[in-house]
Amino acid sequence: xxxxxxxxxxxxxxxxxxxxxxxxxxxxxxxxxxxxxxxxxxxxxxxxxxxxxxxxxxxxxxxxxxxxxxxxxxxxxxxxxxxxxxxxxxxxxxxxxxxxxxxxxxxxxxxxxxxxxxxxxxxxxxxxxxxxxxxxxxxxxxxxxxxxxxxxxxxxxxxxxxxxxxxxxxxxxxxxxxxxxxxxxxxxxxxxxxxxxxxxxxxxxxxxxxxxxxxxxxxxxxxxxxxxxxxxxxxxxxxxxxxxxxxxxxxxxxxxxxxxxxxxxxxxxxxxxxxxxxxxxxxxxxxxxxxxxxxxxxxx
Length: 300
Hints:
Blueprint: H1 3-15, H2 18-24, H3 29-43, E1 48-49, E2 56-57, H4 59-86, E3 92-98, H5 99-102, H6 105-112, H7 114-117, E4 121-127, H8 129-139, E5 143-149, E6 162-176, E7 192-197, H9 203-210, E8 220-226, H10 230-238, E9 243-247, H11 248-256, E10 260-262, E11 270-278, H12 286-296
Parallel strand pairs: 3-4, 3-5, 7-8, 7-9
Antiparallel strand pairs: 1-2, 5-11, 6-9, 6-10, 6-11
Helix pairs in contact: 1-2, 1-3, 1-4, 2-3
């Protein structure tokens, strides 16, 4: 059982609509429905009566709803208590971030700015963007680092959240280079090029689709591999298995060393901003205010 299933169920009880609840949870309606179905399989009985419109809770669903909020609270308290023991209650900076950014952004933040992070324990929690944002909203005492594109933008539903731009990024199509120094694949009309893709409901997949990135190529793409982890797509591209859209910061070293190259100059990079988010502290001590000022002064 996953905590997000409970959160989905509570959200569905609030909105009474799969479509509205899915939108609130920042996922597609089919993905939201699959997660509700997974919860029902875990509980062992149907919770939703899908023969009515709009859908309603079954008797079992109404019963489970009485326990769901407490169950969510108990899980969160158990997780928090366990983490405090594991981290020895040190001064900890927790960053929720996408898998792609956890590979290099937070590392670069701490390496380039040692004075900011001195005597602090850095705790990076990498997940997809949706889960990272939801965990950040639940915690209220941590930070969120994410990519915000012109379309779609990274927006959070609370007016109390403060944010700052700490860098720039772009999503680009990359291809591996063979031992002769030639790209494994070329962007030629009539060619069918293997595509290393994100799942269709992943944030970066939606960015690529929204910006019509693949349609700018002369070739045709055929998906041969799907993985939500950007570093896995990079490894496959290095091995010559296909073309992948990846953040420039993740592949900059490989491009510089001649192991990867931009697949096609016909395809425009999809520019983004790297943003950091935080809730204003309820205890605005000088140290906490200064920490936020230092974090927002970082330029990647």
